[in-house]
Amino acid sequence: MNSPSEYALPHIQKLHGYTPGFQPTGEGWIKINTNESPYPPSPAVAEAVCQAANESLRLYPNAKAIPLREEAAKLHGLKPEQVIFGNGSDDLLNLLVRSFANEKSVSYLMPSYSLYPVLCGIQDSGTVEVPFDRSMSLPFDALADLDANILFITSPNAPTGVGFSNEDLSRVIGSFDGIVVVDEAYADFANENAVELLGKFKNLVVTRTFSKSYGLAGIRLGYAMANEEIIDVLDRVRDSYNVNRLTQAGGLAALRDQSYLKAVVEKLKRTRDFYRAEWEDLGWFCYPSAANFLFVEPKNAKGEAGREVAESLFEFFKANKILIRYFPSSPLTDTFLRISVGDEDQMLHVSETIQKWLKNG
Ligand SMILES: Cc1ncc(COP(=O)(O)O)c(C=O)c1O
Fold this sequence. Notes:
alpha/beta; Aspartate Aminotransferase, domain 1; Aspartate Aminotransferase, domain 2; seven-stranded mixed sheet; 12 helices
């Protein structure tokens, strides 16, 4: 008999799964490596989840999460038929690849969210990776020549934080013969978002998450907005009960508390902009961020940037129990560090740790 894993499909045998950000055990860590919120969710969420934790848990949840679709549709000025919810926005990205990856390829920009290639690997689809250059603005020429069935654009992008204007996105969506997904996991921290483009482009999908601005990474909830026909396709592929009862209750409470969301987002944006300015004062290059993280190229005390410098600061942070993210696999990212915006105390600690590292030489 073969070893059991040899019965897996050949492409799955070769697959490297997604690597989630490190989750430390033990006390005392400052965890700013996965862009979670440092602030708790709206108090209305816990209340709604506790209320929903009753005898009705023996029943399946609302299969299409209709109350959530209605609330999100109201929030964005859409029809409920234009919205679908999932077990995190990853669930929606997965549904999109499963539904639209065909013999033409799946395309995404590099660097961007590292889940896309994994989803393509699971589906055994072809991929076209379109590289950014150091400007990190959309490479229009390469995108204009693209032959793919579905294209993922992360905006604001991760790990850079750079957001793309609706004018730039329209240029790409209007000329692309296929589905364009604008992954807006960080859009609440940006000045512009692509939802208004849904009225103009039938081939556009916009995805959102509760994991960042809403402070609800733990309940796993996200949604996609698109033309009704696209939502119908995704509904056919979706697991019947992909959003559990407690998550539906908590998510609805979070959506209804927009003033809490706005207050958290404003606080994080202020902190983000303060630290970007502080690091620029050190002479460090930092992309303008429209997200809840900063992508910064540190310099050592001698004023040198580079791979060794970024690695050295990454390790120094770790030794001081601060977890951030380092992306060594590309020359576009290997001199940078991505730091999620924490609360004021956490960021003060980050700042003091940088000063210590600089003094150490
Ligand atoms: C660009 C992007 N899209 C989607 C996600 C995943 O969101 P969710 O937690 O809703 O699955 C992330 C998480 O880091 C992300 O960075």
